[in-house]
Please model this.
Amino acid sequence: MKTSLAAVPYFWTKQDYQDFYQQVADTDIDTVYLGETVCSKRRSMTLQDWMEIGKLLASKGKQVVLSTMTLLEAESELNYLKKIVQQGDFLVEANDMSAIQIANQASKSFVAGNAINIYNNQSLSLFNRLGMTRWNIPVELGQEDLKPVIPKAQELGVELEYQIYGRMPLAYSARCFTARHHDLPKDRCQFKCKDDVEGIEVSTREGDSFAQINGIQTQSGKVSNLLNHWQKLQAAGIDYARIVPVAPETTLEVIHALTHAINSNQTTVNFADHTREYCNGYWFQMAGLEMIA
Model:
């Protein structure tokens, strides 16, 4: 079982990104995704900045993948996307059909992000013909859903990646929920995202955790946690256990604990954080907010 670290879905400062990835470089994580996937207004990092971090990680033996935006709305965003695809150093994670089209036209392979709607063997085969070499499985697909699909992926040589930790991406919208929360127009948002390391919690009237708003992205309020089930995922045919970053310190703790468990072939991952609510129901064909011990 290999491990991967998804692109940070939040808006951090340039220094925060650099400090975080300096520490990631010294972990045993196998693959690291880099880039902005949520909002093009988040410009604390340039493409050159991401490339420099990528070269640092690659020098430490990590596979580096550059992630693209999930929702494109302007010509400038399309031009930036083309630069990501056309660079020749790193593989690309396509989170939008335009990225897949550009990669295909350039005869470049790509990772299909979990925002790409692949739910059956026909779609899997189609995207494989377009150049997909790895599939980041949508979070709502459980082990029974994947049973008819995994053999086809293995036949095609497509690697399978499944989220094992982190808030789940649920939806994207042209509206910015963070700006709306602060009673600001999207075009003059004052970069309020930067004030929230993990987004803004949304609770029900009863006080239950419901969702996390993060710019135009809605995430699960509870953190997906399948850490202690990594061997079950491996046995099912999953190649990569994917960690989606939360706060930097917690994310690094998860990386260390998971990679140690895998390297030692230990069932139990020695990680405990009681400050967050957890869920993992989707994998077990249940409501996603359920937590199976």
